[in-house]
Amino acid sequence: MARRVPAYRSHQSGQARVTIPQPDGTRHTVYLGPFGSAESKARYAQIIAALSRGEPPPAAKAPAAASSVGRSVNEVILAYWQHAEVYYAGPGGKPTAELNHIKTALRFVRVLYGDSAAADFGPVKLAVVRAAMVERGWCRPLVNRRVDRVRRCFKWAVSQELVPGDRYEALRALPGLRRGKTAAPEPDPVGPADPGAVAATLPHLSRVVRGMAEAQRWAGMRPQDVCNLRPIDLDRSGPVWVYTPPAHKTAHRGQRRVIHLGPKAQAVLAPFLATCADPSAYLFTPAAAVAEFHAGRGAARKTPRWPSHLDRNRSKRKADPKAAPGGHFSTGNYSRAIAAGIAKANERRAKMAAGGEFDPVPAWAPNQLRHLRGTEVRKAFGLEAAQVLLGHARADVTQVYAERDFALAAKVAAETG
User: Which pTM value belongs to this model?
Assistant: First the structure.
């Protein structure tokens, strides 16, 4: 009689579980992670595959001696995380975005194989981890980058003699996902923002966020650069201002980032600089945006503020709110503020259309302002000028940010081809 396959079931805690019969007649329940998640389904498939091969599943294996098994995957991940918290910290020990990417990538490894021996983690198990990432719906390049972060963890573990020396080379044997050869979707190419869409969005942004967008648009800065802008980092002694961010994307490679600000960018920054009393403070802050929002809403009131209303509002206001405005914008908050402005612009257009058809404002993100500036500079001054302005060490990187002038190509073909 065929052996019954243990079912994938839910638990009242929200976890997925599978109950495995043991050789001694008992039953052992293994919790797999959130019910319905890709991680839990992948771990369930791993256990069923082991049972079908006649092997004891990972949770049912008897613990072997430490000398033969060595460290578990969880122990290696924990050791690497302690290293990463220091190595990938920014100025002042502030966590960088890379730490979040590492945590996300290693979470799949921990859920699927955390209890297994790190010395047994090879290309087949890494492929299972990758399949779980694909099932999550991530695009192909993102999956490849996060699989590389898993390899990087084991590369470090080899350097610390936490796992056998052949583990990293074995993991490198698994090739990356290739275009057209995988179920993982391809990402949409990131192009420059539509100037018309930017112009239509600006009136619907707060003064602070609008200033950030306009400064970034004319200087070709990265979103991180405009979020971290401080007067102390600006040299305003010459006709062209020079902004030297203390922290930037390629600082760990010893590269210096210098951003030149012309008259248009200077005109945007001047009002903010005039009201910034502390040169070491961030120029654009969520606190200022929130204060201006409340001031504007108060100025638009049509009824007076009666003392009783003020007393009631004062009693309801929290002395120590949990979500107080931060000291400066994160790139995520900045991007969400832009998206909110685009939504408001479309709401306005829909209202003006009175239920009829209207042309919505196309979505765009802050990083596309950098693409837009690179495209404009390349078209007017050439590739080398765009490369210098954007701060790229290699021209092929600039090709990604500055769209090719296809109109020029078409003109040449029409006249000479």
Answer: 0.64
